[in-house]
Specification:
Blueprint (H helix, E strand, L loop, with lengths): L3 E6 L3 H16 L3 E2 L8 E6 L4 H17 L4 E6 H5 L1 H7 L3 E3 L7 H11 L4 E3 L22 E8 L10 H5 L3 E2 L2 H13 L4 E6 L14 H8 L7 E4 L9 H7 L8 E3 L7 H6 L6 H14 L4 E8 L6 H14 L3 E6 L16 H24 L5 E10 L2 E5 L5 E5 L3 H4 L6 E10 L2 E6 L3
Parallel strand pairs: 1-2, 1-3, 3-4, 4-5, 5-6, 7-9, 9-10, 11-12, 12-13, 16-18
Antiparallel strand pairs: 7-8, 14-15, 14-17, 15-16, 17-18
Helix pairs in contact: 8-9, 12-13
Length: 437
């Protein structure tokens, strides 16, 4: 009987890509995947440490596996494993590896099983590496959308952010290898890919003569790939030169996640962000001037230690100015080892109040943006079916629930494009009817 493995992934899309790669390795080793919670022989927990809540969830998941699955080999990797391996060992992990060691997963697991040591830790100094660590191509993906990791690391060192310390310096992937993997995905039937990295804007800064725009244009030549979606960007990449380079691609999705973090110039400077409020707004305007129905999403931190009431109101006002489709609101979380960790934190009640105000304002803007699609027809890539409802996303990443009218043939629409007439908006989703020719 095959041995069973399960994977728990916390955090970003890069972690998701790396978990998928490790899943492929385990399958090649003869293991069979089952979704957690389940009884398994191996459980990988790919951890996150971007906030204190992420730390807590990572520890809890390891402890939960240890308690519920005695005899299971628990492997902890990812950013919390990179930062604090000893704590994860105490939580019950048997193997703790850093982010660089993910590329050597097969060898590490085989050595552990052979030696049968009670615990094994392999976490090296991530900042010393300067070349992209290649992993096995994943051969299964989230629904019908495939993530492609093209870059790792970040050189920006924002004052609040631990990620450069646990992901290392910028390391770009060879473009030919990116092309080969996306071609592989196309051969497997995928029509949409998402380019992801720790700091996607920095792709190519450690290479010669290439940047993110070149990757987009190269991949646009793969006929079977119909959509190219981008992970998180910063507004500094949205220049006239960048727009001119990528606008020739009819496959780049008009959905841009532009990281903001604050609407206040003073706080942005304190955070060591590399742009101003006006530069952010200018970037949004460039996008909307060049892409019809472009939608913008973002992240905003509330309660940075130097954020005053007026600074916070600047964040509220920019939500109204930009009219985001979605805002991910985070309360400031002190990260030991960062510059902001030395600052006096604001009262938790202030963080809660500001978070509530900003979330409410963002929700209003989201409803306003989505209401523009009422009575319009949108193209949807169908991802899955629930009874007679087909569910998927538009090119600008709005979730659509479409009434198919025929449960028996609904499944045939998965991984195909359908036209949907929008009749309603509910819970940040568009609802409509499939239009048949």
């Amino acid at each position: 009987m095959k041995k069973i493995f399960s994977i728990i992934t916390l955090g970003c899309k890069v972690n998701q890509y790396e978990s998928s790669s490790i899943a492929t390795t385990l399958t090649d080793m003869g293991y069979e995947y089952r979704e957690f919670p389940c009884k398994c022989d191996i459980c990988l927990v790919n951890t996150c440490t971007v906030t204190s809540i992420s730390d807590k969830k990572s520890r809890q998941m390891i402890s939960r596996v240890s308690t519920s699955n005695p005899g299971c080999i628990i492997i902890a990797t990812g950013c919390l494993a990179q930062r604090d391996p000893d704590t994860l060992k105490k939580c019950g992990a048997h193997i703790i590896t850093g982010n660089h060691e993910k590329a050597s997963f097969r060898e590490i697991l085989e050595a552990y099983i052979k030696q049968k040591d009670p615990t094994y830790t392999d976490v090296t100094e991530i900042g010393s590496y300067r070349e992209f660590e290649h992993m096995e191509y994943p051969d299964s993906w989230e629904r019908i959308r495939g993530y492609v990791k093209i870059e790792d690391g970040c050189d920006n060192f924002c004052s609040y952010c631990i990620i450069p310390y646990v992901r290392g310096r910028v390391r770009s992937r060879d473009m030919d290898d990116i092309y080969r993997e996306v071609s592989f995905m196309a051969e497997k039937g995928l029509k949409e890919v998402v380019l992801t990295g720790i700091h996607l804007d920095s792709y190519g800064k450690d290479l010669e003569g290439v940047d993110l725009g070149d990757v987009i244009n190269r991949l646009s030549g793969i006929n079977a790939i119909k959509r190219i979606r981008l992970g998180s960007l910063e507004p500094v990449i949205i220049t006239d030169v960048f727009i001119a380079k990528v606008k020739s691609s009819d496959k780049l999705c008009p959905e841009f996640h532009l990281s903001l973090q604050s609407g206040s110039d003073k706080v942005l400077k304190d955070m060591n962000r590399k742009y101003t409020r006006q530069q952010y707004i200018d970037a949004v305007n460039k996008i909307r001037d060049n892409y019809a129905d472009a939608e913008i999403t973002t992240d905003i931190i509330v309660g940075y230690p130097t954020e005053s009431d007026d600074d916070f109101l600047e964040s509220v006002s920019i939500v109204k100015v930009v009219r985001f489709l979605k805002v991910h609101v985070f309360k400031f979380s002190k990260r030991k080892g960062t510059k902001a960790a030395n600052l006096k934190e604001l009262d938790p009640d202030i963080l809660n109040e500001r978070s509530g105000i900003l979330i409410a304002e963002a929700r209003k803007m989201s409803e306003e943006r989505m209401s523009h699609y009422l009575n319009k027809t949108v193209e949807v890539l169908a991802e899955h079916v629930e009874k007679d409802m087909v569910i998927g996303h538009t090119c600008n990443f709005m979730k659509v629930i479409a009434r198919a009218g025929d449960a028996e043939t609904s499944a045939d629409k998965i991984n195909n494009f359908i036209n949907v007439r929008i009749t309603d908006v509910s819970d940040e989703q568009l609802i409509g009817d499939i239009i048949y020719d």
